[in-house]
Amino acid sequence: MTFEVRPASVFEDVRAVVGPKSPEANVCWCLSYRIPSKLNNELRGPARGEYVGELCRMQPPPGVIAYDGDEPVGWAAVAPRSDTSFARSRTIPHVDDLPVWSLWCIRVRPGHRKQGVSHALIAGAVEFARSHGAPAIEAYPVDNGDARVDMTMAYAGIRKNFERAGFTHASDTTSVLAGHPRVVMRLDLR
């Protein structure tokens, strides 16, 4: 299958992939690493979606969406690391002072998994970062080997998918997700 990946500037499409079934729900909306923790804790229910709606109207938008025809089937959060909590992380180190972009969340809608959507999202996020002048892009996936990763915690991605996309291991971290260590994977875009 071929998926088209476009900037996440259409809020309804972002909502279809990362939004809750109930507008009152306090789901992540992929804000936990994007905004300061105090604001993340203050935004409740519909205010979370409204905040994401504002991000979708900004340049650059908050990430990319994968489409199967006109249907949004996947999401990847990508932004300059300096605009995320990874800029201040105590558990995920900076490899150097390069103003890298971070790719920290990949989500594929149920019914569309195991079809290559995550691979398309990684490639689309790389091109998005490159088109906005990023000198490199980093991801912080789990290093799970052959062990299964719980689907709800697979948002960070898995190391082998980033290796397939040309990323290389840049650093270990002290971060652990779903019982698996996370690593810094990097792709130079210069």
UniProtKB/TrEMBL annotation:
N-acetyltransferase domain mapped to chain residues: 1-190
Entry-linked SUPFAM superfamilies: Acyl-CoA N-acyltransferases (Nat)
One matching Pfam family: Acetyltransf_1
InterPro entries, sorted: Acyl_CoA_acyltransferase, GNAT_dom
Protein name listed in UniProt: GNAT family N-acetyltransferase
Taxonomic source organism: Streptomyces narbonensis
